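## Example pair
The file below holds two records. Each record gives the amino-acid sequence first, followed by its structure token line.
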Amino acid sequence: MMISKTKPRKLFTKKDLALESPEQKKKRAAEILKRLSRRFAGARIALKYSSPVQLMAAVILSAQCTDKKVNEVTATLFKKYKTARDFAKADLATFESEVRPTGFYRAKARNIIAASKFLESKFGSRLPKTMEEMTMLPGVARKSANIILGNAHGVVEGIAVDTHVMRISQRLGLTEFSDPVKIERDLMGLFPKNRWFDLTYKIIEHGRNICDAKKPKCSMCPLNDICPSAFNLPNWQCPVKIFEENL
């Protein structure tokens, strides 16, 4: 059996990052998006819902909770609560008990009920379509608003920065900030607006499958030659040579 030989790639180092110009960073960002798009072509929101108001509730429940756990809870919850009126009329104590597995359940229950009442009184039980209006809802800050607007209405006003997006953007050297608003601003300047929405989900899938917070799989990462953190993170797994063709 013949084994094809490939030339090892040159790594992009911290030194290279320090010398990178804005134009070079934008070019590298385009390559990052291209590779993530190839690897995670079907990436989309993991939360399950059947109506815009259920999406809002699911997003609020997802704070400091995995999407998997939220889906487990909403599988039963959304059979009972389907409209803004359903959520608005919910008994607080009962609702707290129903969403308790997602953590921070008292605040989440209050916010979902209050947001639903606000939808009824101010927006005719419909989710608004602007960032300004969406962030008026209790429990809905900019990150959540980006997720809801994009998935419910196809309205894209920014990039949702969750823990995966924050971590990976920092590791890739696309931002030096830890504040989500500043990270979002940096990313918006690097990527075209028509890709802001799907960028979030491709990065999230990359974080879940490869660039893990504790044990990143640098050796199988399609970005390992253009990431200044590759092979330099604690507990990175499976040391192998880096080859010219990414998976």
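Second record, same layout:
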Amino acid sequence: MCAGGDRGQRARPEAFPGDRGRDARIEGELGGGAARSEKAWAPKLAVGDGALGFWAALEEIFPDTRQQRCWVHKTANVLNYLPRSLQAKAKDALHEIWMAETKAVAQSAFDQFVTSYGTKYPKATECLVKDREALLAFYDFPAEHWIHIRSSNAIESSFATVRHRTDRTKGCLTRDGMLAMIYKLGLCAERSWRRLRGFERLAKVVEGVKFRDGIEVQNVTRINRKYQPSRIAA
């Protein structure tokens, strides 16, 4: 999995041309022969906000990678189109979507939000609807991972202090001094990192095991069979 945002320099699709230049870059960074097995290196899921350059570059290099939009960014963007008096209520309604136990329940809450606010505030619902599929992609991954992949804040919050310090010290340090400071700030930031839940399921995600509503599909099948009524012989 990877994460991306719109802070700093935006990714540009032209930076990864779909020709020998791109293949040479991939081979150089990932090792010989990587260009021939690009799919093997593709992340299963990319998490980010609405930075168009990031997604365009991702589709250029890893077209098979699933996309998950950040719910924190999306919530803020939707609320910006609503009057302040409605924002608290609308925020709770948005929480009902991404906190739903199953994708079906989330879809129902999604439709309810669009129905409630679409007539008077179409820009708010348009902002939400345009990324509907990408906002609900996390339901196809292990439930233990949901807390980590529903937003890109895991990346952004960790490096917020780094951005803050580097912005304030521009021109005051040498390149080596700046790198040393960034390294030390990163060490401090990692103290607040949350331990990855369900890391043992990462292998199954990499192997392509399917999940539905956070549960492995094989397990879902077993549960359904368990609760099927037994046939009675005539």
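Notes on the second record: Confidence is low (pLDDT under 50) at residues 5-21, 23-32. The chain has three domains: 2-69, 71-136, 159-192.
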